[in-house]
Amino acid sequence: MRLEGANLVTTVRRGREKLHYLNAEPINAIADRWITRYDRRRAHLFADLKTALEQQTMRDNDFVYTTYIRTTPERLWRALTEPEFTQEYWGLHHETDWQPGSPIDWKMGDVTMAGAGQKVVEHEPYRRLAYTWHHITPEFAAAAGLSAEDEAATKDEPLSTVTFTLEPEDDQVKLTVVHTGFAPGSRIREMVGEGWVRLIADLKSFTETSKALQS
């Protein structure tokens, strides 16, 4: 598929189904490099189009995003799992043994996000990593600067699941991030959409330039 080859469409398999999602990464990259110097508002039209099309064609409200990082699967895996590296670009780290079924605690400064059901789902080194998204605690809401309205809307939402899939392609790694399991009308889904785009961009930049990660 030409759109998939141009990274404009991401495919995700679920059993016998092959689902297609519009991928905003190429558009975001163009905006960051060129359009921002002219008229960012026009770039936002592409995001609005993406949202409108997804609302009409997707059967759920998953977040799906694909990017290419000039690195190796081993280095990208370290950037995703090792505390000294996640702290650099994410501002937090995970405490877990990374075994499927094991609890995973999120540490952001003095704030800990932990609770029932928060666990590692998949752990295939250098290929695939998945875990349930953390509980929204009052401490996290305060540290993240969430409004009282957002905290109230998110505290009772069910846990969702984020999956990272790594596929080597020449001197790059194709990274696909899928965040799924949101309730209808989820406020968390609204919040993570923009947040993931920024975080993945930071992950890409860190992985490609960190001298500590290259050693």
Defining key terms:
single chain; 215 residues; alpha+beta; five-stranded antiparallel β-sheet; three-stranded antiparallel β-sheet; 27% strand
How would you portray this structure in words?
By secondary structure, the chain is α+β, with helices and mostly antiparallel strands. 41% of the residues lie in helices and 27% in strands. The protein contains 9 helices and 10 strands. It has helices spanning 2-5, 25-33, 40-57, 73-81, 83-90, 138-143, 148-154, 187-209, 211-214, and strands spanning 9-14, 17-22, 63-69, 93-95, 105-108, 111-113, 120-124, 128-132, 161-169, 172-180. A hairpin with a 3-residue loop joins strand 7 (120-124) and strand 8 (128-132). The longest helix is centred in the C-terminal third of the chain and has 23 residues, at 187-209. The N and C termini lie far apart (38 Å). Mean pLDDT is 81; it is low at 37-59.
